[in-house]
Design goal:
heterodimer; A: about 550 residues; alpha+beta; Beta-Lactamase; Helix Hairpins; six-stranded antiparallel beta sheet; five-stranded antiparallel beta sheet; 18 strands; about 40% helix; B: about 130 residues; alpha/beta; Rossmann fold; five-stranded parallel beta sheet; globular
Chain lengths: ~550, ~130
């Protein structure tokens, strides 16, 4: 008689197949349990049988030389219908369910059968651990108990096997991911690290590429007696690196630093590093993750470019000096008055020669600033005379635009003439830039106001114009190199687009701040703020 | 000293720059000028010209300004003659370097032809 299907047959089959056990090879642990069952029950045959869709398949099969039989013939197909109970058939010939079963009537002539269902945690009966004899017999209660317990062990084995498979799969996945990561890392043009924020940047991880940068394998940077990146950093750069990293970590920001590292040949190479702190939920720093790569090539290119700009500028300066010098003499009337039409043209030529000279001077200043070759001579001195001098120097220029310059001082009387510690020559350059911008953008007959305003321990120098102001989209780029409101304005107003970038650097190198306020349509105010040095104690330490 | 600046030995390799300075100093302001196009030429002419002041370009091919000065000082007649350098390198420490070499003053290049004579006279009066 054919067994009915369990009520949960579809999900039962799905779970069975998920075990990935059907049609696998023999396993000692299953065989041992079957063997034990056969011994305890004193029968010749014991099976671990799993009921598949149309067959029963034997994971273990003691005393029988088949691996599966059709499900229709399976005693176990009946056993799984009562997951909680053993199915015991003491004499198959006398049981109507099995009396016509070919396995009873023919080989292997089953007479006795006892099967303990293999029930998973979720309640699915996958099959049985069963024992079989070819003669009818009775089944003792201790044997029944033993068979049940052994069936429990088979279930345990199945679950262990499944857990093991899951583990292996996730391990494989992990390995694949780590291989993937390694491939990606090894294709990076630099080394990736994770380190602690200590004096030696103790490395937790460092990718292999570091060997290309430093000549040392990554393992050399980890463990006992490890080499520190600081050990091979240029001694002049070590404090700067430390400071910048600490500052960035304090603000929980990423850092980008450039420094020199000794390469495998003992030469210094330029390194750029990008990194950021990794913080836990409470905001405490766990470690630093980052990336370093060789930028020597870029540095060399920059050097070549700077040298080129410098060389070209110097070469241009001599002929320009001759041009503006001779034009200056004529325009200045030193050689007598030329005819008026000629005079006009000569004035234009002279003005443009001066503009070209200014551009070259700006370029050279920029180059010096970038190369760190520009010295600043900070000296304690009164501010007012410097500003007065600026007005005088730039008066002729303002006159040529029909613009007037006005100075006002707003300060405590006893603090005038406002002592500051700076380089007068550099401040003159900043003022010339501020004033010439203000004049250029002023309407005809306009006024440019220069104000000195005393603040708490500081003095603010402002240059106010009543021109068109600064448009929104231009504000962010104002202090960048080669910036001008628009190229048509550049043609109209002259100027190099370097002035404000240079001024910013100058002001900052003199411990000041630079900035501007502007309402479009109502003019612009540019300012520089410097610390006051009215008392000797206000001075910067080295003066 | 009350002696007026009159005779200037001028060393400048660029002929155009030289011509402009000569126009200003000789033609317009009436100084007695001896122009040289190299340090070597200056060494040949210096003693005979008996300059009150030597105006010396710093960057010249061959013998540069400071080297020319060194050789000029080797003539007993030139030991005390004031020297003014003309150079584009006018950062404070660079200027100090020229003064340390024994220069009386430094005039920045590019110079303003309108004020060149006045600058020279100011330096001269500082002696």
């Amino acid at each position: 008689m054919k067994a009915a299907l369990p009520g949960n047959e579809l999900t039962r089959l799905a779970h069975l197949h998920a075990l990935n056990i059907l049609d696998t090879g023999r396993e000692q642990s299953f065989d041992d349990l079957a063997q034990l069952a056969a011994m305890i029950c004193e029968v010749p045959i014991a099976l671990v049988s799993l009921i598949d869709h149309e067959r029963q398949w034997f994971k273990s099969c003691i005393g029988l030389d088949v691996t599966e039989t059709p499900r229709d013939l399976a005693f176990c197909a009946h056993a799984i219908l009562q997951p909680g109970d053993l199915l015991v058939v003491e004499d198959a010939i006398r049981d109507p369910r099995f009396s016509d079963n070919p396995l009873v009537l023919g080989e292997p002539h089953i007479r006795f059968y006892a099967g303990a269902p293999l029930v998973s945690e979720e309640g699915y009966a996958f099959g049985t651990l069963c024992v079989i004899d070819t003669t009818p017999r009775r089944f003792g209660s201790s044997q029944a108990m033993a068979l049940k317990l052994l069936a429990g062990q088979v279930i345990q084995l199945l679950e262990l096997r499944e857990a093991n498979q899951a583990l292996q799969a996730s391990q494989l996945q992990l390995q694949e991911r780590s291989e993937q990561l390694n491939t990606i890392l090894s294709n990076f043009p630099g080394a990736v690290y994770r380190c602690l924020n200590d004096a030696r940047w103790t490395m937790l991880y460092l990718s292999d590429k570091v060997e290309q940068l430093t000549g040392y394998p990554s393992t050399r940077f980890m463990g006992d007696g490890a080499l520190s990146i600081s050990d091979i950093t240029h001694p002049e750069d070590v404090p700067m690196v430390y400071q910048q990293v600490q500052e960035a970590l304090r603000q929980q920001q990423a850092f980008q630093i450039i420094y020199r590292l000794r390469d495998g040949n003992g030469d210094w190479c330029w390194i750029e590093e990008l990194g950021c702190g990794v913080f836990d939920a409470s905001g405490a720093l766990k470690y630093i993750d980052g990336f370093i790569w060789d930028i020597s090539e870029r540095k060399r290119a920059e050097q070549i470019k700077n040298d080129f700009v410098s060389a070209v500028s110097h070469e241009l300066r001599t002929p320009l000096t001759a041009i503006s010098g001779s034009l200056g003499l004529i325009v200045g009337g030193m050689l007598g008055a030329p005819p008026e039409k000629m005079q006009n043209m000569l004035v234009i030529a002279h003005k443009n020669a001066l503009r070209l000279t200014q551009l070259i001077n700006d370029l050279l200043d920029m180059e010096k600033l970038i190369a760190g070759k520009m010295g600043f001579d900070l000296e304690r001195q009164p501010l007012v005379p410097i500003i007065e001098q600026s007005l005088e120097t730039n008066k002729a220029y303002a006159d040529s635009f029909n613009v007037s310059l006005h100075l006002s001082v707003c300060a405590n009387e006893q603090d005038v003439p406002l002592m500051v510690s700076l380089d007068a020559h550099r401040l003159q350059q900043v003022m010339a830039n501020f004033i010439s911008n203000a004049v250029k953008y002023s309407p005809p007959q306009g006024r440019v106001e220069i104000q000195l305003i005393q603040l708490q321990g500081e003095v603010k120098i402002t240059v106010v114009d009543h021109g068109p102001g600064i448009s929104e989209e231009f504000r962010e780029r104002l202090f960048q190199k080669f910036t001008q409101a628009d190229s048509s304005a550049s043609r109209q107003r002259g100027g190099t687009g370097l002035g404000l970038a240079i001024s910013k650097t100058f002001v900052e190198r003199m411990h000041g701040r630079i900035g501007f306020d502007s309402i479009p349509g109502q003019g612009a105010t540019f300012y520089a703020i410097f610390p006051l040095a009215n008392r000797a104690t206000d001075l910067v330490p080295h003066h | 000293m009350t002696q007026e600046l009159s005779r200037i030995l001028y060393v400048e390799d660029d002929p155009d720059i030289q011509a402009i300075a000569m126009m200003v100093l000789e033609t317009i302001h009436g100084f007695v000028m001896e122009a040289c196009s190299s340090g070597a030429e200056a060494l040949q002419k210096a003693v005979a010209f008996k300059p009150d002041l030597i105006l010396l370009d710093v960057m010249m091919p061959g013998m540069d300004g400071p080297e020319t000065l060194k050789h000029l000082r080797a003539f007993p007649e030139m030991v005390a003659v004031p020297v003014v350098f003309m150079t584009a390198k006018v950062q404070p420490q660079e200027v100090q370097g020229y003064l340390n070499l024994g220069a009386l003053g430094v005039i920045a290049k590019p110079f303003d032809p309108m004020t060149l004579a006045q600058q020279l006279v100011s330096i001269w009066e500082k002696r």
